[in-house]
Amino acid sequence: RSGRSAALRARMEERLLGARFRYLNQQLYTGTSRDAARLFRADPAAFHLYHRGFERQVRRWPERPVQRIVSYLRRRPASLVVADFGCGDCTLAASVKNQVHCFDLVPLSPRVTVCDMAKVPLAAESVDVAVFCLALMGTNLQEILGEANRVLKLGGTLMVAEVASRFEDTRAFLRAMAQLGFRTVSKDLSSSYFYVLEFAKTGPARPGPAPGLRLRPCLYKRR
Ligand code: SAH
Fold first, then answer.
1. Pocket test for ligand 1, best of 24, 87, 136 (most atoms within 8 A of CB)
2. 115-166, pLDDT tens digit by residue?
3. Which InterPro entries does this one have (predicted)?
């Protein structure tokens, strides 16, 4: 009997965690990056819960997007300086020889510099590669990508790995990216789970709204 009730209890806890994860996840995708920073500053436990949920989701996928970014960097010189926006557990930094600046809201690893990705403590034009791996979460995408543009050297690389179903209109998205100063170098749409997009910085963003810069929130189904 006690075995059965323990199992029941575990199942209930799982469901509760799942529900909280989905709720936090929804908040991250429907507010600005500043809202996210405030949320996790107020409740660091929520952050750890979010990460457990994130891990569980991504483990279901046949391949982790961050591994694609790792392979990409290994094909390029290790002297390139990298900035990882929304680094999570710093898998990227741990997997390459490059100097990697790791930014996230709460430190899952001692390598992390805690900050809002819309305002990172790096000098202008100081990095060769900026990475957003499943990290374009806030609704202030233009501001976030503007920050990546600021810290990137001219001709530097922007790598974006994002959930495929978030793109409503990929062409409009890429046009908006061009307006933000990012030329599309390659797009890998081969995975049905996520896209990997490579851009080169052509210059500063052209001013004005970029209406095509829209991504759907990534909302997970209840299981
Ligand atoms: N890039 C990692 C983690 C992806 S999960 C990987 O691929 O495994 C998305 C990460 O973005 C989370 O760790 C989350 O805390 C972070 N994040 C979300 N909003 C952020 C913000 N405003 N500033 C910094 N990090 C943010």
1. 87
2. 999 999 999 999 999 999 999 999 999 999 999 999 999 999 999 999 999 9
3. RRP8, RRP8_N, SAM-dependent_MTases_sf
8 A C-beta contact, residue 106 and residue 50? no
- Measured over the CA atoms of residue 17, residue 18, residue 19 and residue 20, the dihedral's sign is positive
Residue type, 208: G
Per-residue pLDDT, 16: 86
Q: Is the CB of 86 under 6 A from ligand 1?
A: yes
Ligand 1 atom nearest residue 91's Cα: 8
Average predicted confidence (pLDDT) for the chain: 94
What letter does residue 165 receive in the DSSP assignment? G
pLDDT for 179 equals 97
For ligand 1, whether the C-beta of 133 sits within 6 Å is yes
pTM summary value:
0.95
d(CA 182, CA 204): 9
Q: Which residues of 144-179 are buried (b: 16+ CB within 10 A; e: fewer)?
A: bbbbbbbbbbeebbbbbbbbeebbeeeeebbebbbb
Q: Which tokens belong to 132?
A: 């957003």
What are the structural domains of the chain? 1-59 (1.10.10.2150), 65-213 (3.40.50.150)
Ligand 1 centre to CA of 6 (Å) is 34
